[in-house]
Automatic annotation (TrEMBL):
<protein>
    <recommendedName>
        <fullName>FAD-binding domain-containing protein</fullName>
    </recommendedName>
</protein>
<dbReference type="InterPro" id="IPR051704">
    <property type="entry name" value="FAD_aromatic-hydroxylase"/>
</dbReference>
<dbReference type="Pfam" id="PF01494">
    <property type="entry name" value="FAD_binding_3"/>
</dbReference>
<dbReference type="InterPro" id="IPR002938">
    <property type="entry name" value="FAD-bd"/>
</dbReference>
<feature type="domain" description="FAD-binding">
    <location>
        <begin position="2"/>
        <end position="329"/>
    </location>
</feature>
<dbReference type="InterPro" id="IPR036188">
    <property type="entry name" value="FAD/NAD-bd_sf"/>
</dbReference>
Amino acid sequence: MRVLIVGAGIAGCALFHRLKSHTIDVDIIEKSTVLTNEGAAICLPANAMIELDKLGMSDTIIKCAHQVNSIEYALANGETLAKASLMEAPLSKGPFVALKRDELMRILRAGIADKIQLHTWPTDIQQTENGVFVTLNHGPSKTYDLVVAADGINSQVRQMVQPDTSLLKHKVTNWRFIAPAPSDNFQPVYYVGNTTLFMIYPISKDEVYCYAHVTDTAKIYYDMPTKEALYSLFANYTAPVLHCLNTMPSSEHIIRGELKSVMKTDSVFQGVVLIGDALHGCPPSLQQGAGMSLEDVNCLADQVINHLDNLPQALSNYEKARGARIAWTVNESNKIIKLAGLGESFIGRLVRNFILRRKGPANVVGWRKLLADD
Ligand SMILES: Cc1cc2nc3c(=O)[nH]c(=O)nc-3n(C[C@H](O)[C@H](O)[C@H](O)COP(=O)(O)OP(=O)(O)OC[C@H]3O[C@@H](n4cnc5c(N)ncnc54)[C@H](O)[C@@H]3O)c2cc1C
């Protein structure tokens, strides 16, 4: 079988590891000219760790990562709204960890970096009787039995196989950076303001991953110099947030972005299959980007390896196995952004805070469902 993986991010690299050891001829292409690792850090909930375990990588990850055992939501002044332990079933099925994103990518690319064809992307994809005919920006065209789109939320392959792949824009601007820990044994806290949120999540005993966002309908903060925007939004927040602001790195080490979601979650188009953010890119409210991507990878790899002589069956099984869980995750991640957005009005804040106090941290509620269903 001939497989082309488009994109060497989390999903593409993990799938290459799963397929390379079988009687499958796998090519992996990456449009970047160098292997960079955008993103400060990454939080991996238990389901991501369970999937990394299937890839034989969880022990290596644990050595570079920091395990957390509770999640708190608080107001901007530090008053607790909700807190939950991560040590109780079903959350205790695996560890919740966080680490620098470049560490995760180093582990995922170990032993395969020289196989990744850089500065390479498809310029045309045609489904034919003999397979999927792929024209690349350079080099010979080739026919594959399977093309896997692992090329992220702005997937070019998705645009080639699916009409109308526009993305939902949440009008939320975000920033990510790493800062020194505000205190010893810091556990993750999400501080919620009126239209803002500031998350502090430890990635080692000395460092934390900071994620900040604001509802930014007129793109005022997106266009402002980074530090000026962060100070103007979070200067009245509680001490740990001020500590992170006062110790944040220079602006070039702070990543700014906008939250977007895919609007459709169809995964199979004859010989082309979508995985990772190409399939379910959405806001990081449930921190499920890696978890869902790795679930896609293991599900697709199992199906392909078990049905080497019946690819349509493998893809149909993959579609059925992943469909509902992915649609739920995208929808729930969007809902959490809407819940945070309620803070804009006084009544909305009352409703938001009541829901959080009553149900607990919104991401933990989602993780419980995902781990119970797993
Ligand atoms: C602000 C923010 C915070 C996040 N925090 C978390 C978190 O804490 N935990 C978590 O699990 N997830 C998080 N995520 C989501 C997570 O980053 C993604 O889900 C994950 O990176 C998806 O991996 P992927 O391999 O599908 O896509 P990507 O990581 O986007 O990789 C796609 C790769 O394909 C390449 N590519 C693109 N187009 C082409 C092309 N045409 N041809 C060839 N190559 C191409 C790209 O260069 C890239 O290397 C966050 C996302 C955001 C935006």
